[in-house]
Amino acid sequence: MSRPRVLSGVQPTGSLHLGNWLGAIRNWVALQDSHDTFFCVVDLHAITVPHDPQRLAADTRSTAALYLACGIDPARSTVFVQSHVPAHSELCWLLNCITPLNWLERMIQFKEKAVKQGDQVSVGLLDYPVLMAADILLYDADLVPVGEDQKQHLELARDIAQQRVNARFGPRDADGEVIPVLKVPEPLILKEGARVMSLADGRNKMSKSDPNEGSRINLLDPPELITKKVKRAKTDPVMGLEFGNPERPETDNLLGLYALLSGKGRDAAASECAAMGWGTFKPLLAEALVEALRPIQARHAELSADPAELDRVLSSGRERASAVAEATLGRTRAALGFLPASDRAAQA
Ligand code: TYM
After folding, report:
1. Close Cβ partners of 133 (under 8 Å, ≥ 6 residues apart)
2. Is 15 a residue whose pLDDT tops 70?
């Protein structure tokens, strides 16, 4: 029996932060033993908002290096760059033409990001979730491990696969049952870490696009900077830390981070910090963060010093990914009725 398939990705937009790690990458690591895992650096998504061409390639490499530094093992996982597999763009086009525009117009992330850009919003930003659906559907993914904010995009990918492709274009078996063209994926959103909040406002999620650097901890922030950001993190005048008080979102977030990163878990962390003042708690949290990120930063530095090795990983990832992606794309083209190119027909 083949293992269930997993696909996920992160955009190489600037530096990856704690939310990207705790909400996504950390969960990918555990799946490598039980699943057939594909992880891509989604560079095509990174240009849906204005980007710096001088930085895209370096950020793409650095993001791939961070995957490995966080524990993704290229011997067990296929690690690749989205733009290196042209099937992503082609499947996106096929799906574009059968996805209703109003499905995209109601996407929360589009609405949030579009507001910030006024009349400069690109077609790509609106189309972002269709490209994401293509990423997932190309690999027949059973599971997609992501943070909470991606739930709506995952539902869209499921609807596109089920309602727009399989139901309309799936061939029928002898009993008239649809033979699915695309696999319908399930999201995997773990409770802890699924929504890491901003250090500047516990009601907003930690995000790469927040202009306030102090609102997030980047995975490559040096220890002094981490300590400084934690020291400045928003708190409240109440003594003692607790979970679940809606009036104290910052407390909930910071205590949650401590519970996760110290490895103590929520119950132990909550009783340890129940009577603690912020002046005692913040250095503890900073220490837990620095220690959790230390091995990742050390491994990232080693990998960055050997770009040829990273290139080898990405090149073999591209080969493995392309083989799977081309097969799915071929199946979809056929279902939609395209004339095969003669060299393709010769290969078939
Ligand atoms: P990106 O780069 O915005 O986020 C990458 C991953 O990090 C998670 N995440 C968070 N989790 C917890 N708390 C936060 N504050 C936080 N911020 C971000 C996101 O949920 C995501 O899992 N659209 C995707 C990229 C993508 C993708 C895909 C993912 C493109 N194609 C195919 C899965 C499968 C995104 O959010 O990127």
Report:
1. 92, 95, 153, 156, 157, 160, 161
2. yes
